Amino acid sequence: GAVVSQHPSRVICKSGTSVKIECRSLDFQATTMFWYRQFPKQSLMLMATSNEGSKATYEQGVEKDKFLINHASLTLSTLTVTSAHPEDSSFYICSAGDSLRKFQPQHFGDGTRLSIL
Amino acid sequence: AQKVTQAQTEISVVEKEDVTLDCVYETRDTTYYLFWYKQPPSGELVFLIRRNSFDEQNEISGRYSWNFQKSTSSFNFTITASQVVDSAVYFCALSEGGGSEKLVFGKGTKLTVNP
């Protein structure tokens, strides 16, 4: 079964809306989670590293005020796309690794397909 | 900086053919991990394999096999006797450290297996 739950799986909303995406580790603790973005027919690009209890680390070119990340517990990270516009339409996917088993591969959520009209 | 190159953008084969997906990587780290993921049209990433930089043994899992060669910085993936269900986008990826770190992905290879 899924070990990382990502919700919602699909969002369609109007331009200007803020959208929150949740990434939850189901049976392990994750002090670090990763958020990736994938535009149609392109690769996955890391947006930011979410750190439990501290600020996220954003990759170059990713606006931190646009993509708010909160990692308030060891099992949940959220990504909020603020005032979303059509160019933010993309597939967003999170991953998490077990903090107690650092040499195990990280697990990916099933992704969120965001469409901004 | 780390980089993963998948030179083949799209491959089309007929069922039962063997197909090899190429992956070339660049890294300055001596310890790193290489991955292959499958992404079907539904979008989720399906983990296929992880290999660390100290283990150059080839691996076989059913119809899948992987050839890791540090001398050429390559980690190629072969599907034997391909099936329609193998149709997907395949990504090669690289991470440093223990394998639970952030991944650098190649651009992916779209494989279409025709009946």
Topology at a glance:
The complex is a heterodimer of chains A (117) and B (115).
Chain A: E1 4-7, E2 10-13, E3 19-25, E4 32-38, E5 44-51, E6 57-58, E7 67-73, E8 76-81, E9 90-96, E10 107-108, E11 112-116
Parallel strand pairs in A: 2-11
Antiparallel strand pairs in A: 1-3, 3-8, 4-5, 4-9, 5-6, 7-8, 9-10, 9-11
Chain B: E1 3-5, E2 10-14, E3 19-21, E4 24-26, E5 32-39, E6 46-52, E7 59-61, E8 64-69, E9 74-79, E10 88-96, E11 104-105, E12 109-114
Parallel strand pairs in B: 2-12
Antiparallel strand pairs in B: 1-4, 3-9, 5-6, 5-10, 7-8, 8-9, 10-11, 10-12
What can you see in these coordinates?
The complex is a heterodimer of chains A (117) and B (115). Helix content of chain A is 0%, strand content 50%. Chain A is mostly beta strands and 117 residues long. In chain A, the strands form two sheets. In chain A, strands 2, 4, 5, 6, 9, 10 and 11 form a seven-stranded mixed sheet that branches. In chain A, a hairpin with a 5-residue loop joins strand 5 and strand 6. Chain A is globular and about 40 Å long. Chain B has 115 residues and is mainly β. Helices cover 0% and strands 53% of the residues of chain B. Chain B has no helices and twelve strands. In chain B, strands 2, 5, 6, 10, 11 and 12 form a six-stranded mixed sheet that branches. In chain B, strands 3-9-8-7 form a four-stranded antiparallel sheet, with no helix packed on it. A two-stranded antiparallel sheet of chain B has the order 1-4. The radius of gyration of chain B is 14 Å and the shape is globular. Chain A binds chain B through residues 32, 34, 36, 42-46, 49, 91, 93, 95, 97-98, 101-108, 110-111, 113, and chain B through 33, 35, 37, 43-45, 47, 50, 91, 98-108.
Could you name the key traits of this structure?
heterodimer, A: 117 residues, mainly beta, 7-stranded mixed beta sheet, 4-stranded antiparallel beta sheet, B: 115 residues, 0% helix
Short description:
The complex is a heterodimer of chains A (117) and B (115). With 117 residues, chain A is an all-beta fold.
